[in-house]
Amino acid sequence: MIKAVIFDMDGLMTDTERLFIDLWCQVLMERGMPENRDVVTHCIGLDHGRTRAYVSEKLGEDFDYMNVMGEINRRAIRHYEEIGVPLKEGLYELLDYLDKKGIPYGVATSTKRDNARFRLEKIGVLSRLSGLVTGDMVEKGKPEPDIFRKAAEAIGVPAGECMVLEDSPHGILAAHRAGCIPVMIPDLKEPDDETSAMLIARRNSLLEIPDLLESMNRNT
Fold it and tell me: At 134, phi and psi to the nearest 5?
């Protein structure tokens, strides 16, 4: 029986991964560097520590990671304030369905707390959540299981009764390790065989999740 849903945020609720990658490429090229799109794409779903370590490994220890990320975040915030935060199809429809069914839901995101709260408030979702756990609230982020276990605790539902909706292989691995019910809605990265073996289901859109929930709860 699925009694709660835990959402990833970027690439799952909000269509922000593409913007982030485009800004990354833009900032690097302005600094006379190759865009290194493959490097940042690999980091989707990772916590900040692992992202920084991977970028330093690929681009060198002298790469000014903090400066580059600060500039990207400033441009992203300006975009959100001027244009808005882009949404994934079916987000509000799914939240309305969960509210109607009395199924609590929360967010577990690698994004830092202030940035996550800003985006979630901007799209009118923050006040609807039963729990929010961000990357700076756990010692070990995705792909470790801590963030999903903490989110399940915040919602008040055992991890094994929480469906996790994720767009990245790193997030799916974290959900699997946490003992949750992993469902993938791919954004920029398709699941490989290893990731696919961990999935309870794969769907193309948030619009397909109500039917999945109905089916899974009917059969338990």
Answer: -115, 170
Angle at 78 between CA 38 and CA 45, to 5 degrees: 35
Residues in Cβ contact with 213 at an 8 Å cutoff, skipping those fewer than 6 apart: 2, 5, 97, 101, 103, 163
pLDDT in tens, 61-89: 899 999 999 999 999 999 999 999 999 99
- Report yes or no: 119 and 85 within 8 Å, Cβ to Cβ: yes
**Total-model pTM:** 0.91
The CB density around residue 123, as the number of other CB atoms within 10 Å, is: 17
Contacts of 172 (CB under 8 A, 6+ apart): 164, 166, 182, 184, 191, 195, 198, 199
Give the C-alpha separation, 208 to 116, whole Å: 25
DSSP β-bridge partners for residue 4: 162
Q: Which two tokens stand for residue 217?
A: 């709860």
Query: How would you class 67 by CB atoms within 10 Å of its CB: exposed for 0-12, middle for 13-18, buried for 19 or more?
Result: exposed
Of 48, 5, 64, nearest to 170 by C-alpha is: 48
For residues 153 and 217, give the distance between their C-alpha atoms in angstroms, rounded to a whole number: 21
